Amino acid sequence: MVYIVFMLILLLPTIAGFGAIFQKLFGNVFLGISALLLSGVFFISMLLTTIAFFFPLNIFIETGTLAIGIASFFYLKIHLLFWDFFSKVSRFFFEIALVIVLLASYYPFILDHFGYYVPTIQWITEFGLVQGISNLDLLLGQMSIWHLFEAGFSNFADPFLRINALVLLIYLIYIFEKKSWIHLLFLPVLFLFSQSPSPDLPVIAIALIVLNEYLNHNKNASLLFAFSVFVFALKPTMIWLPLFGALYSLVILKTNLKFIIPGVVVLLVFFIKNIWTFGFPVFPVQLIDLGFSWKPNPNLLKNSSEMAIMKTYDMQFTIAQIKQFTTFDYVKNWFFLSGIKKIIHLLLILSLVVFFFFSLKVKSKIIWLLFISVLIKTILILSFSAQYRFFLEIFFVIFFVIFYQSFPQKRAKQVFTGLSIIVIMVISYPTILQKGLPSFKLGNFMTGYTKNQIYKPAHFEYNQYKTHQIGNLKFNVVENYPFSFDTPLPAISPQFIQEDLNSGIFPQLKGKTLKEGLIWRKINHEEKQKLQSIVEGFNRKNGSIQ
């Protein structure tokens, strides 16, 4: 907890300083220090993404970022605004801030933390954006802009990767500045994402802030749209927000098309980043094939697509079984999966129906535009990979729109307190969740409270691996564990070695160094035998990884 407090003390002025620079250059998206902080997150993210094409985001880049941000914070007298806010805000604010720090200090339990978030940040800090990195590990082709932002502060300011605690604090500042108390109800759910640098937390928090500004008739169409596209760039399943932003600007504000220019710039950076790391404009969609030599092998892309379909059905059916489904089977089996996910699926459809009738009742043009945007997103997700995690924020949006004028401060505080107590109990004593809701698989990875959290965030260390070489690529493979979260780079997870073996290929250096990029090539008989022995050695200790 002490480390997280230190991180917040260091990063809040840094980000506010960059936010002040942003406002000097481009104007205010709205008023308040939460706008400064949000602008700083946006500005730094775009700058670090650009820098990462050329340089690793190492401690030298981080030191420069901290120095510029903190110097701007004092030079532009932003510290006076901070003093004015923090000296007047109620004690309840600091109580919630303490809860944020506490819950962010627990062990991470989201599996993507180990298989995707941490390895991605390692690559960015050591090498920057690597051309064709998806050839080494397809998941790395995502390289979310959120992880570029986190990587920029992971050397010194936030070595335990608790940057999401910072986002929660920014969101909390916004709630108290705008006195929009219904947002307090969303915090307890977001607490569950605070132990990892998960993009889900910032996209939900920022989307709800931007949506609140739209509903309050903020007329800054250009910057609001840019921030909407930024949320999409962090996680493309949030496509409803830029859609709604564009419709809001054209239909409600009746602005000309010039408002899209800043958003288009953000979108271009997003596309170029994806093409550089993955070979296509949007990960993992294989649309607009520009024929780049570093795009992944077609077999691996096919496997990824099939895995996405199987995850739609919670891995309860094989791809062969799914291909035999009739249209009725597709719908029926999705609705009636065993476990908690069928409940979530039913709630999604029920929520959309409720949202539709609410839109009919209120007869608001803004609400109808939002409903259309959310419906388009839902159709796209259902047609691609209808996993519940891809439409989680829809529940937040619908609840917020229906009730955002119905929660006074007192009632919001009461509900927030009750929900927060439940979350603290569940995370501290996960056996409650494991026994009460066994179908919720993430509960099995929660480890509870440890006394060392008071000093520094709980984190895992493994660091067991073996080194091998195929062709010109020397690589490390973790032992007795499926994820390479702290294995020295370049590291390849056993699952991806198995997929390469099945496809008869293996990644290779494009030039002489990792920074020059990676491609794939077919392997010969000797290399295939070597890969087979690596996979068999892993399988003997851990069981099949296929």
Could you write a compact summary of the structure shown?
With 546 residues, this protein is mainly α. It has 23 helices and 4 strands.
Structure description:
Helix 1 crosses helix 3, helix 17 runs antiparallel to helix 18 and helix 17 runs parallel beside helix 19. The chain has 23 helices and four strands. A two-stranded antiparallel sheet has the order 1-2. 60% of the residues lie in helices and 4% in strands. The chain is mainly alpha-helical and 546 residues long. The mean pLDDT is 88.
Q: Which features would summarize this protein structure in a list?
A:
mainly alpha, 60% helix, 546 residues, two-stranded antiparallel ribbon, globular, two-stranded antiparallel sheet
- Evaluate the radius of gyration: 23 Å
Q: Give the helix/strand class.
A: mainly alpha
Global morphology: globular
How would you sum up the major sheet? 2 strands, antiparallel
First-residue to last-residue Cα separation: 39 Å
Q: Given the structure, what is the number of helices? A: 23
Largest sheet, order of strands side by side? 1-2
Into which percentage range does the β-strand content fall? under 5%
In helices, the fraction of residues equals 55-70%
Parts with pLDDT < 50 across at least 5 consecutive residues: none
Mean pLDDT: 88
The overall strand count is 4
Instruction: Write down the secondary-structure element order.
Output: HHHHHHHHHHHHHHHHHHHHHEEHEEH
